[in-house]
Amino acid sequence: MGGALTIGEVARRAGVAVETVRYYERLGLIPPPPRKASGYRLYPEDTVRRIRFIRHAKELGFSLREVAELLALRLEPTTPCAQVKRRVQEKLQDIQRRMQALQRIEKTLEELLGACREGAPITQCPILEALEDTERGGKRHG
Hints:
Elements: E1 4-5, H1 7-14, H2 18-27, E2 43-44, H3 46-59, H4 64-75, H5 81-115, H6 126-135
Helix pairs in contact: 1-2, 1-3, 3-4
């Protein structure tokens, strides 16, 4: 199946909204299509593959800036695979750091919930007290 696609066809095939296609175009993640004499802009089929690449990379935690870097590497045939591997390793380390931070937050929230005395008046709420203490630089949970 060859040929040029309307923006709606690109969006449908790539599983995104039309506005997403326009947004990626504005960011330079996909090249703008040429405008036909009729005024319609028709995208090459490769645009669908490129948007799917962007979506998948985003699902794996890459920012749009990082996706742009990966796309640039992908377009340079002399780029060694090790450069891509290094970026993926960095992303994995970033994800692991974020997971550790989320685990600390989870532990703190569980401790706060455990400290709750449901029958106590709001003025004695240990959760609110703990949050106020943290803001003042006092006792920190976790």
